[in-house]
Please model this.
Amino acid sequence: MTAKKPFYITTPIYYPSAKLHIGHAYCTTIADAIARFHRLAGDEVFFLTGSDEHGQKIQQKAEEAGIKPIEYTDKIVAGFQNLWKKLDISNDDFIRTTEKRHEKVVQEIFRRIYEKGDIYKGSYKGLYCTPCESYWTEHQLDENGCCPDCGRPVQEVAEEAYFFKMSNYQDKILSYIEEHPDFIQPVSRRNEMINFIKQGLEDLCISRTSFDWGIPVPIDEKHVIYVWFDALTNYLTPIGFLDDQEKFQKFWPANLHLVGKEIVRFHTIIWPCILMALDLPLPKKVYGHGWLIVDGDKMSKSKGNVVDPIGLIDEFGADAIRYFLLREINLGQDGNFSRDALIQRINSDLANDLGNLLHRTLNMVGKFQDGVLLAPQGESEIDKSLKADAAETVAFFAENMDKMELSLSIKKVWAFISRANKYIDETAPWALAKDETKKQELANVMYNLAESLRHISVLISPFMPVTAERIWQQLNLPGKFADVQLDDIKAWGGIAGGHKVGTPEQLFPRIEVEKDEAPAKEKPAKQPKENKEKKAKEQPAENGEISIDDFAKVQLRVVKVLAAEPVPKTEKLLKLKVDLGDEQREIVSGIAKHYDPADLIGKNVVMVINLKPAKIRGIVSHGMVLAASQGDDLKVLSVDMPVGSVVR
Ligand code: MSP
Model:
């Protein structure tokens, strides 16, 4: 057996100065999906997150609250840990910069670099931004003379301080970045950093004397270490830098530091200089992801648009939030969070596409084969194409997840989910079940659907670990889900013939949209600029033409009306119960003026089955019956075809 490849991934360590918001959760969720993917691919993963607890700001906050800084941070950090647990973050360690193990490492690093001659004592006159805990030079300030990161005023400070000779490493770091195109990603950030270094690196102030909430400088106790020198070294501590050489050799250099775009500079300039001074190799990759904005605006307390992730998780569940963040936003760009868009994704992708596929499949296996999957024999052209799509999806997923193309990868899985739903429509199992001579064909279809779901369960597991396992359990597959590997879906046919599946349980309840109208277009969420441009390209042509792909999104089916009754206190609406062949649904239809309910019962009519559910007069309608109208005349489209037939 070949040794597992180590994969060391980190998130930034978070400041406990404020409550974590959905933007912080975004960063950690990305890292978690990547870590889970690498475990699935068979790597030995070490995934680190933590808290960055020192600095003047924390000390001030604690003083304001009348408590010790550590009491202040203990409480907030417990909140972080609770959030990561609720979001199913699978970190292997959580480092606090207030821990002894970390203090030891920071002091040792200071000592080593000091002894080498790259740290010296001087006097610092500088422009300091307290909220960002950053010093700036005059030419780095923004056009208002304020902090270029947060836009707030800076203060001039002068004090005795220790300096790190970054200037010694300027040329070395520049050539390193130029020679290693993968080191800083995306490429736009790489270019920014190259330009920044070319303006000249100044020596970095790494100690302060004006406050004492920090790690003491080991050779001069009246100084505490400046926060970034303290914070960045966190990445070395838990992988055994001082106490476990074997572990350290295994995991260092880190494969990936995932950080927000505003802290790329610290990770790709200051951190590499520290590592070079220690003669340690540099991390393989620093990826600067974009920011999450809310309804088109940057989150801020003053705008009152800060989204609390705990509230969202309690309302919608962790997997739905994770899915939304990872699917909706392209990693390198800013992306928009909106509640409307989240609900839309839950209803259409999770409840409808994925939930229905599982539910329909298990329902049919139960109804047609007493819950038992029979070994497949032979294959039709449709079966072949489904299997080829599955193999292509797995290969695409493995390749693109490795390249951190998270959104592309999960979209591909969803294309396969749609493909599997379409396979049901194409093979019409309810019709096969009525024909004694088609028993094996039916068995093949049932098997292929369950096998598709086995693939889907594995593929979505880095994104939605809980849902993935629920699908696995409902399929009643053997073994511990935690042991499942990507290799398990490298080939089709992993389910044994004679396997009994479980009973279906709803994966995601549809979220009722509070509207009093018939299904109408959702108000589109405000998009960031770059998305708006992309969306414009996706609009139908001005003459109203749509492509065949647009049309293919509408799923039409012949359904039988089982029951019909007027909706109380309305003149126009009827509530219908319809049979789709593999499930029954309730819909509301505006045809009351044209039909006596009794006349509709037993009719086979055409229905749009993948319309987003809408609440109409308190009833959730799960689809729409088609009708033709002229003037006052209206007739539902009824056809002489069996229930479940696909209309195309
Ligand atoms: N403590 C430093 C990091 C030190 S790492 C050695 C820090 N902390 S932070 O709490 O302010 O930010 C942590 C991470 O959260 C950063 O990567 C930052 O980009 C990210 N985010 C904060 N707000 C965000 C959004 N609105 N959207 C996406 N990420 C955001 O910086």
About this structure: The domain at 548-647 is CATH 2.40.50.140 (OB fold (Dihydrolipoamide Acetyltransferase, E2P)). Confidence is low (pLDDT under 50) at residues 516-542. Residues 12-15, 23-24, 26-27, 52, 231-232, 234, 259-260, 262-263, 291-292, 299 surround 5'-O-[(L-methionyl)-sulphamoyl]adenosine (CB under 6 Å). The CA atoms of residues 119 and 164 lie 5 Å apart.
